[in-house]
Design brief:
The chain is α/β, with parallel strands linked by helices. The protein contains 15 helices and 24 strands. Strands 22-23-1-24 form a four-stranded mixed beta sheet. It has a four-stranded mixed beta sheet with strand order 2-15-17-16, covered by helices on one side. β20 and β21 form a beta hairpin. The protein starts with a strand and ends with a helix. The C terminus is likely disordered. It binds uridine-diphosphate-N-acetylglucosamine. The site of uridine-diphosphate-N-acetylglucosamine (UD1) has 22 residues, from α1, α5 and α6.
């Protein structure tokens, strides 16, 4: 397994292109199951999770072509050969559960493994199941699998989510496109990935309105057809790279970045003293000479501060001039990066869902280990600012969600490289 070596202390200057959104792509790909015509996704990110979703769809009988070096994906579900999403694939990636609704809507049956444990909390799928049951799905949990059937077809209904769930909103939206009648989704997630999915489904012939608000209305149609859809920019990759010059110093342009995708995060970053400006091609982020001011952060569903940027923000706040509080309200156990940052000299106190971070003058490089995707990249950000060398081990998490992180950062002057485990162990 590879490691990433970072030698800290270099200010960054340059441009970083922002890729298509991982999370959007992972829900757009299963949407192809809703039609027998091909769905073409442009601006696709080249990531391990996208390849895992492709493998899952292929196991169901889809054809998946990666064109233009993986930037364009064509998913064709002309015939569904299998209705079973196997544990071997689902356990690797929770987003696999997004095939459940589309398979059921198209075929009237689906068997999907339960995702099992996850490093960032229980993350059950009960809301996905409740939402599908509301449309008349018959659900049976046995042998670690959800057996779903809709022998007489699905019927639109009103469903109010008890808590906001991105994935469950996506599953219900996709399923409702082919149900008979009207589905009203209340307390729906408002994330940009939901808006992107709605746009894509409309291109495929679906009747949806209200995406981006708490109430989404889907009018079922007889059939959907093929379409071509560009994946939106990855707001989490954008926020992550906005933090790179913030923590390391310097000035970087994020090409393709839009402030509206990360507004709550950008407001907090500015409150720390970082400068953000819109440019014709994206956003420019600069750290003026002064220190970082502490801020308090609470993670919330969109448009609040995203949980997927909490770890990276914490890396910056370890160097603030004062004490910051980060409250995690979306996932339990999402502070696994804290002990690793502490090995680099950070002062962090975690109590339940709140981390209190007392800024230190400097971080020191250390061997650290990543425990999930966003935690991994927070350690790389910390490494950019730390004195000496930081080695981030087990970077397969990183490859699930960040395209060529070392190339993007080294193009801006960072001293960062990927090394094979054997070399990193000896060197
Ligand atoms: C998606 C994102 C993930 C992000 C998260 C929150 C993808 C592939 N992943 O995950 O990067 O961190 O949104 O913005 O898009 N919950 C239940 N029952 C369910 C489903 C969820 O209790 O059936 C809980 C979860 O444990 C969590 C909360 O609801 O506490 C929100 O999770 P959810 O929005 O569903 O996250 P995902 O869609 O899995």
């Amino acid at each position: 397994m590879d490691s990433i070596l970072v030698r800290g202390g270099r200010a960054l200057t340059g441009r970083i292109p922002i890729a298509g959104s991982k999370n959007a792509c992972l829900t757009l790909m299963p949407a192809a199951l809703l039609t027998d015509e091909p769905l073409t996704l442009t601006n696709a990110p080249r990531l391990a999770d996208v390849r895992t979703m492709a493998t899952l769809l292929q196991s169901l009988g889809c054809e998946v072509a990666h064109l233009q070096d993986g930037r364009v994906l064509v998913v064709g579900a002309e015939t569904i050969a299998s209705h079973r999403a196997d544990y071997d694939i689902v356990r690797r990636m929770r987003a696999s559960v997004l095939v459940l609704g589309p398979l059921l809507a198209r075929e009237g049956r689906a068997i999907v493994s339960l995702p099992g444990g996850c490093a960032i909390g229980a993350r059950p799928v009960d809301l996905h199941l409740q939402a599908l049951a509301a449309l008349g799905a018959e659900l049976d949990l046995r042998d670690g699998y959800v057996h779903a059937a809709a022998p007489r077809g699905l019927v639109g209904a009103r469903f109010a989510f008890p808590i906001v769930s991105v994935g469950a909103t996506e599953n219900l939206m996709m399923t409702a496109t082919l149900a008979r009648g009207t589905t009203v989704i209340e307390n729906a997630a408002c994330e940009p990935e939901i808006v992107d999915l709605a746009r894509c489904l409309r291109r495929m012939g679906a009747a949806i309105e209200g995406e981006g608000t708490g109430t989404i209305v889907v009018e079922g149609v007889e059939r959907l057809h093929g379409a071509t859809h560009p994946v939106i920019a990855d707001r989490i990759e954008l926020g992550t790279y906005m933090l790179a010059p913030a923590i390391a110093g310097g000035e970087v342009e994020l090409v393709g970045g839009e402030r509206g995708l990360v507004a709550a995060f950008a407001d907090k970053l500015e409150a720390t003293g970082i400068e953000i400006a819109e440019t014709p091609g994206g956003l420019r982020v600069a750290r003026p000479g002064d220190g970082i001011r502490p801020v308090d952060v609470v993670t919330e569903p969109f448009p609040g501060f995203p949980t997927d940027l909490q770890a990276q923000m914490m890396a910056l706040l370890t160097l603030a001039e004062g004490t910051s509080r980060l409250e995690e309200r979306i996932f339990e156990n999402r502070f696994m990066h804290a002990p690793e940052l502490m090995r680099m000299g950070a002062r962090i106190d975690v109590h339940g869902g709140t981390a209190t971070v007392t800024g230190v003058d400097a971080l020191r490089g250390a061997p650290v280990m990543a425990t999930d995707l966003r935690a991994s990249v927070s350690l790389i950000l910390a490494g950019l600012a730390a004195e000496g060398e930081t080695r981030v081990a087990r970077v397969y998490h990183l490859d699930r969600g960040y395209e060529r992180v070392e190339e993007k950062l080294s193009a801006c002057g960072a001293a960062i490289e990927r090394v094979a485990e054997s070399k990193s162990e000896t060197g």
